[in-house]
Amino acid sequence: xxxxxxxxxxxxxxxxxxxxxxxxxxxxxxxxxxxxxxxxxxxxxxxxxxxxxxxxxxxxxxxxxxxxxxxxxxxxxxxxxxxxxxxxxxxxxxxxxxxxxxxxxxxxxxxxxxxxxxxxxxxxxxxxxxxxxxxxxxxxxxxxxxxxxxxxxxxxxxxxxxxxxxxxxxxxxxxxxxxxxxxxxxxxxxxxxxxxxxxxxxxxxxxxxxxxxxxxxxxxxxxxxxxxxxxxxxxxxxxxxxxxxxxxxxxxxxxxxxxxxxxxxxxxxxxxxxxxxxxxxxxxxxxxxxxxxxxxxxxxxxxxxxxxxxxxxxxxxxxxxxxxxxxxxxxxxxxxxxxxxxxxxxxxxxxxxxxxxxxxxxx
Length: 363
What we know:
Layout: E1 3-4, H1 5-12, E2 16-18, E3 23-24, E4 26-28, E5 37-40, E6 57-61, E7 73-77, H2 80-91, E8 106-107, E9 112-113, E10 118-119, E11 124-125, E12 130-131, E13 136-137, E14 142-143, E15 148-149, E16 154-155, E17 160-161, E18 166-167, E19 172-173, E20 178-181, E21 186-187, H3 193-200, E22 213-214, E23 221-223, E24 228-229, E25 234-236, E26 243-245, E27 250-251, E28 256-257, E29 262-263, E30 268-269, E31 274-275, E32 280-281, E33 286-287, E34 292-293, E35 298-299, E36 304-305, E37 310-311, E38 320-322, E39 327-328, H4 329-361
Parallel strand pairs: 4-5, 5-6, 6-7, 8-11, 9-12, 10-13, 11-14, 12-15, 13-16, 14-17, 15-18, 16-19, 17-20, 18-23, 19-24, 20-25, 23-26, 24-27, 25-28, 26-29, 27-30, 28-31, 29-32, 30-33, 31-34, 32-35, 33-36, 34-37, 36-38
Antiparallel strand pairs: 1-3, 2-7, 21-22, 38-39
């Protein structure tokens, strides 16, 4: 989709200079940009690369003397990453399918589907499902009985949505995600070895061999508005109360959210993060890649966990955590520094030990 410099600047709420009528069809790095693309030179370090490409327009830092770079027009950018969001949104081409319902889709007669919903090939829609207007289901989506899909939701191919799951408005669920799988919840007739080990903090256990009995997941999953769920991520149903994901939360690829988990608003869960059953995350919590949260824990609002952090206890609001086990970031950094010093300290210790031994041997 083509857009002029003036139109793009207005969409970004930014100032422009030069030929406002210059038409653009995309964006590219400065060294690769062509005449119909805007070069993304929003950091001063990229300005020199403009001479390597063929761009006639660029997004540049405020105050740039743009005439030095043989350009016809520029947009002045204050916050590069925010501008990137706006620029990419204006050139985004979302996957699209033909209007209506594909003839190969299998839809239960009791399903309620708004007239403008698009449903791709080989989708399966269960009994009493409700799909609101503007929703798009790409091919091979499965929606189980009694589920609800909100207005303008975008469901990519291969997604599986379980029974009674509720998806909010403008939700985006990427390829092969599963929302509403059963929780991983089992129990033994008597206390298991795991329960005894946990209660005794690792002391010897006396539990006898016994089989696991399944605890059914009788609740569902409630996904808020403007939530995005990445490819191959899974969110388990609750046991007797719903697993919940708050408005505006973004979940990356390959993330696991366990049964009964409660996630607040505007959280970020990066790739390979995992939240064990019945834990509660406040608003604006960030879990870095591969971060893990143990079961039945509470993380307060605005907690940030660095990548690979293992959270094994409750975390108060506003705290920044790092390491395994998780501690405050500044404490983890000091611990790491001390760990790196250990070989030198041990060498000094051995030398001191030798000196003391030699002195003790002397008459």
